[in-house]
Records
---
Amino acid sequence: MSRARARVISIANQKGGVGKTTTTINLATALAATGKRVLIIDMDPQGNASTGLGIDRHQRELGTYDVLFAETTVEEAAVATHVPNLSVVTATVDLSGAEIELVNAERREYRLRIALANSALNFDYVLVDCPPALGLLTLNALVASDAVMVPLQCEFYALEGLSHLIRTIERVKRAFNPGLDIHGVVLTMYDKRNNLSDMVAADVRGFFGDKVYDTVIPRNVKVSEAPSHGKPVLIYDLRCPGSQAYIHLASEVLKREKKRLTA
Ligand code: ADP
Ligand code: MG
């Protein structure tokens, strides 16, 4: 089946609160700042990516639901954000029912992939913010993606549930999308005052080797404040450590992308 022209990267981890949405928004913003045309697809019915980009519920007309079920193109559904070069396909209320509606939908694992193959022509990168579950919405994201990025929170239970995620990625590769890669693992909410953070980081690097990005996202209050202002932290406070870390992450992502193209 044909692929989207944009590079599609899912941000996935079935655990909630590990930094998926924060990473999606801020990586997207940093990529957009380099001149890339970036689209976020908000695949989480909670709609945190949409809200965090300042798109209130009442401003959302067409969204991810329509892309999945109504043959709406992503271009039709995409809403411009305040960040130049960054658009978002929002989560509308009907996305809450999508997980169940997908069960009996035709080609249920492929719906996002089909939508992206027929649209998203005007974007360089599509980042898909996944919900905290390994259901059909996340499956659609993985089947539509070239690569998956896994945020891991630097806490004691970071690795718990990870083997399930890796098995799911392997299964998607075998059954639906042989081209799917793990782009990388990003350590989030690192606290340098907490020894545990270092232990977890070392553990994760032991397990994933150089799949783990060098960049570690620090725990930073500015990062958690920014969404309530409807802004990426890069816009809210460019100089704070969280923003600087996401700029570093974006440059690492672009380096890996370049390496892939020359390989
Ligand atoms: P997920 O999408 O995986 O559920 P979020 O990105 O929404 O996770 O992050 C969970 C919570 O942690 C949010 O309130 C967010 O603002 C906060 N958070 C995420 N990253 C950081 C960070 N680096 N420093 C401080 N707070 C953070
Ligand atoms: Mg989220």
---
Amino acid sequence: MQICKTFSEIRAVVGDWRRHDQAVVFVPTLGNLHEGHLQLVKLAAEHGDKVVVSIFVNALQFGKNEDYALYPRTLDADIEKLRGAGADALFCPSDREVYPNGVEEQTTVAVPTMTNILCGATRPGHFTGVTTIVSKLFNIVQPHKAVFGVKDFQQLAVVRRMVEDLCFPIEIIEAPVARADDGLALSSRNGYLNAAERALAPALYCALVAARDAIAAGERNYALLEARAQISLLEAGMRPDYFSVRAAKTLEPAAPGDHDLAILAAAYLGKTRLIDNVTISIP
Ligand code: PAF
């Protein structure tokens, strides 16, 4: 696996592959890799000839009171995991390489819809931080395809919209949510949970599945389902941020005639904010 720290290094590597007609698939990450990330790498390998992974803890997408400083930086362990998963190149730039003029002066890329609701309501500016870094990484790495996990459902929808609006010639591939045996969606932030919190955490997925089962059984009173789920999360010891049934494509609140729905939730367990979602298509 080639390890590149500068734009010119990764461009030279990918440029060479592209000249030899090799399809390059990109997996952007914040690092602190777990099994869910390695599944993204494996999926990427199925969709092309060469896999590039990036590791960059992007200050621009963290709010002032969020966990940017705390976010685990585990580069050596990540490199070993990526070697095992068969990645061909790792791009792990410094802050100075990515933001030479400083984060405050960075030109930004903002998607005007879907970004101020759900996670965007609690984390103002988060999605602009994401679309700015993803567009920079796309321009630097110049892959043919890029893999994003469905776990970050809203992020995926926003990135798809950015790719469409800005005409990036990059195919977006969706990776299913990787889960622990008890249903908890794999996330680097699960590492913040103590043993008691970790035992409670699957309640988020249970609430989502209960709502999905109720819709499958014919329930169309989404406000009622949302209220019930919030109560179940409180009873499980969580502090719900949102629990919402949405139209999967637009992320607008679901209306009775909508067929493709996403049920999205975020909740705090202690200081840790967990997110998860499930989808359902109704005839
Ligand atoms: O989902 C993530 O890990 C990050 O938001 C991403 C896409 C790597 C951008 O920093």
